[in-house]
Automatic annotation (TrEMBL):
Organism per entry: Phyllostomus discolor (pale spear-nosed bat)
Name this protein carries in UniProt: Eosinophil peroxidase isoform X2
PANTHER family (UniProt xref): EOSINOPHIL PEROXIDASE, OXIDASE/PEROXIDASE
Residues spanning the signal sequence: 1-17
Protein's gene: EPX
GO MF annotations, alphabetized: heme binding; peroxidase activity
The keyword Phosphoprotein belongs to this UniProt entry's keyword annotation: no
Any one GO cellular component localisation term in the record: extracellular space
Top-level taxon: Eukaryota
Keywords, in A-Z order: Oxidoreductase, Peroxidase, Signal
InterPro entries the UniProt entry points to: Haem_peroxidase_animal (IPR019791), Haem_peroxidase_sf (IPR010255), Haem_peroxidase_sf_animal (IPR037120)
GO biological process, one term: defense response to bacterium
Length: 383
C-alpha cells in the first residue's frame, strides 16, 4: 500500500507547467491549473470573436438587403437573451477543453479523454471560469406557483422541464470521442465495425419518394400535421450555434468544407441527384450546447419549457413574458397589434428589432416581425 502511495505521489508530480500555447508531456497524468486557466482565457477570446464576426456579417447582409433565405433561417434559429448567455458559457467550456486536448495530442499522447487528466476541483474551476457554474445552481422554490421558465413546476426537482436546460435523455449521449465529437466526424472511422454512410446518401435513399406513388390521406387533413408542429413548438427548440465562423481557425462555415467546430458541413455522395460536384458540400452548423450539470459531455440546450404549457404563446423567459403582456393596465392580458387586425380579431404585436429581417419580404409595406412566445424558427435535429 505504501509503495502504491509513493508511486501515486511520483505520478502526481508529472504536471503541465507551460501556458496553453506551449508544449506538454507525451503521457499527461495531471494538468497545472494555470494551464487550464490560460486555455479558458484563449477560448473566451476565440468564441467571442466568432460570435461577433457572425453577428456583424448577418447585420451587414440585412442592412444591404442581400440576406439569403439561409441567412434568414439562421437569424430565426439564434439563441437570444438568457439562452444565448448559457450557450456562450457552454461554448467557452467546450472550446477550452478542445484547446487543452489539442495541446496534449501535439506531444504524441495516446488516445485519452481530456477530462480524465483534470481533477474535480479543476473541473469545477472550468465550470466557474466559463460561467456554467452559475447556470447549474439549484433554485429554491418560494412561490406556490410555477414560474414562466418552468422552474419549480416540480418542487422536488425544480429544474425538471425548465427552459434553458439540457434536453432530457432516456439514454446517455454517445460521441465519437466520448465527449463531444459526433459520429461521422472522422472520415473512415468505423462504428461497430461498419463505416457510417453519408447523411446526404441516407436522405437520397430513404427520404426521397416517387411522385407517382403519392396519395392523399383519406383520414387526416394538413391541419393534423400543422397541429403537431404547433405542439412541438411548445415542447422544444434547439437553437443553432451563434457562430458561423470556426472557433479556432476563424474560417467562415459557408466558405469551407472542412470540419472545424461548429462547422459540420454535409458531404456530397457519388451520383447525387442534385449536386454534381462531389467536392462541394452543404453548409451546416452544430446545435448549440447547454452547460453540463454533472459532467462535461456535450448535450444540447432546450430553450423552451418541456411542459405542455403554451410557452410558444406566453414565453419561456421572464423578460419575454413581460414584453408579451399589455402593461398599460392591470388586467394581465396579452398585448395585441395596434396597427392591424384580422376582421376585428387581434393579431400579435410587432417586435422591435434593430435590424428586422421581415422588412425584406416587402420593402414598400415595411411590415416588421411579429412577437410571440417562441422567438426561434422551425425545429430540427441535434448534433
Amino acid at each position: 500500500m505504501e509503495l502504491l502511495l509513493a508511486l501515486a505521489g511520483v505520478v502526481a508530480t508529472l504536471v503541465l507547467a507551460q501556458p496553453c500555447e506551449g508544449t506538454a508531456p507525451a503521457s499527461p497524468m495531471a494538468v497545472e491549473t494555470s494551464v487550464l486557466q490560460d486555455c479558458v482565457k484563449e477560448a473566451k477570446l476565440l468564441v467571442d470573436a466568432a460570435y461577433n464576426r457572425t453577428q456583424e456579417s448577418i447585420k451587414q447582409r440585412l442592412r444591404s438587403g442581400s440576406a439569403s433565405p439561409r441567412d434568414l433561417l439562421f437569424y430565426f434559429k439564434q439563441p437570444v437573451a438568457a439562452t444565448r448567455t448559457i450557450v456562450q458559457a457552454a461554448d467557452y467550456m467546450h472550446v477550452a477543453l478542445g484547446l487543452l486536448e489539442e495541446k496534449l495530442q501535439l506531444q504524441g499522447s495516446s488516445s485519452f479523454n481530456v477530462t480524465d487528466v483534470l481533477t474535480e476541483s479543476q473541473l469545477w474551476l472550468l465550470s466557474k471560469a466559463s460561467g456554467c457554474v452559475v447556470q447549474s445552481q439549484e433554485e429554491k422554490c418560494r412561490n406556490d406557483y410555477r414560474t414562466i421558465t418552468g422552474r419549480c413546476n416540480n418542487r422536488r426537482r425544480p429544474s425538471l422541464g425548465a427552459s434553458n436546460t439540457a434536453l432530457a435523455r432516456w439514454l446517455p449521449a454517445q460521441y465519437e470521442d466520448g465527449l463531444s465529437l459526433p459520429f461521422g466526424w472522422t472520415p473512415g472511422k468505423r462504428r461497430n465495425g461498419f463505416l457510417l454512410p453519408l447523411v446526404r446518401a441516407v436522405s437520397n435513399q430513404i427520404v426521397r419518394f416517387p411522385r407517382e406513388r403519392l396519395a392523399s390521406d383519406q383520414g387526416r387533413a394538413l391541419m393534423f400535421m400543422q397541429w403537431g408542429q404547433f405542439i412541438d413548438h411548445d415542447l422544444d427548440f434547439v437553437p443553432e450555434s451563434p457562430a458561423r465562423v470556426a472557433f479556432t481557425a476563424g474560417v467562415d462555415c459557408e466558405k469551407t468544407c472542412a470540419q472545424l467546430p461548429p462547422c459540420f458541413p454535409i458531404k456530397i455522395p457519388p451520383n447525387d441527384p442534385r449536386i454534381k460536384n462531389q467536392r462541394d458540400c452543404i453548409p451546416f452548423s452544430r446545435s448549440a450546447p447547454s452547460c453540463p450539470r454533472k459532467n462535461v459531455i456535450r448535450n444540447q440546450i432546450n430553450a423552451l419549457t418541456s411542459f405542455l404549457d403554451a410557452s410558444m404563446v406566453y414565453g419561456s423567459e421572464v423578460s419575454l413574458a413581460q414584453r408579451l403582456r399589455n402593461r398599460t393596465n392591470f388586467h394581465g392580458l396579452l398585448a395585441t397589434n395596434e396597427r392591424f387586425s384580422d376582421n376585428g380579431r387581434a393579431l400579435m404585436p410587432f417586435d422591435n428589432l434593430h435590424d428586422d429581417p421581415c422588412l425584406l419580404t416587402n420593402r414598400s409595406a415595411r411590415i416588421p416581425c411579429f412577437l410571440a412566445g417562441q422567438t426561434g424558427g422551425w425545429g430540427g435535429g441535434v448534433s
